[in-house]
Amino acid sequence: MIQYEYPLSERIRTLLRLEDLFDRALHFSVRQDSHDHHVALVTLFEILDVASRQDLKSDLYQELERQRATLEGLRGNPNVATDKLDEVVGQLEAASQGLTRMTGKAGQHLRDNEWLMSIKQRTSIPGGVCEFDLPSYHYWLHLEADVRRRHLAEWLWPILPIRDALAVVLRLLRETGRGSRQVAQQGVFQQMLAGRVAQMLSLKLNGGVPCVPEISANKYALNIRFITPAVDERPKTFEGDVEFELTFYNL
Fold first, then answer.
1. Listed residue (162, 125, 180) closest to 21, CA to CA
2. Which residue in 14, 29, 152, 205 has a CA-CA distance of 20 to 30 Å to 23?
């Protein structure tokens, strides 16, 4: 099964993008090869751009506190496991404290590093980080792998509270969904939302079916068109019926 997640609010869109970027940066930063470390650094610059929104930290903090207050209201409910409640509340509190300890704008330590910013500026130019453009970066890429890994960890560490906070929020969001089986007749599906409030939806689709979903949604209707994932010709609507699982999520 392949799962496709689709954000229905700009805030969730930002969190999903950051989740993907943090996963990529952490994956490549612990590897050995200099090419992997280049990818990790470029991804770190992408995180900096996405996380630079002034209200990101406060949005995350407010959502964590809202969820904590909601869960605290469940104490004493005989249908709620106390140990599980304590575990989730503890995770929310730890994530909130991590955000509180962050000083200034997210990624400010990167902006204050002139060497990193010179590399960031050049990465926007195709081929702009060649050795003749940035000899100091070329030198860094030839340092021992352990040294490069240590530098990458030092640059990533101050913004990891953002990753930890969004991970908790997205995990709680994903736990709110309940899937339903649907069929797209001749590759097309439409559902009236009738006032349904959701922040994200997902589709689970058999990976053996040669199609991918194109999703559009507003507060009135959800439209899904399954298309053939051709890489050498113009995509077209899949001609068969498509069975899939549809899930809405809302905190």
1. 162
2. 205
Token pair for 224: 């899904």
Q: 235 falls in which pLDDT band (50, 70, 90)?
A: confident
Report CA-CA distances (Å) from 50 to 22, 118, 167, 218: 11, 19, 16, 24
If phi > 0 it is left, if psi is from -120 to 50 it is alpha, else beta; for residue 231 that is: alpha
Beta bridge partners of 212: 227
pLDDT digits (tens, 9 = 90+) for 172-228: 999 998 889 999 999 999 998 877 788 999 999 988 888 999 999 887 899 999 998
Neighbours of 222 (CB within 10 A): 20
Per-residue model confidence (pLDDT) at position 25: 97
Predicted TM-score (pTM) of this structure: 0.90
Dist. CA 226–CA 232, nearest whole Å: 17
Do 74 and 80 meet the contact criterion of CB atoms below 8 Å apart? Answer: yes
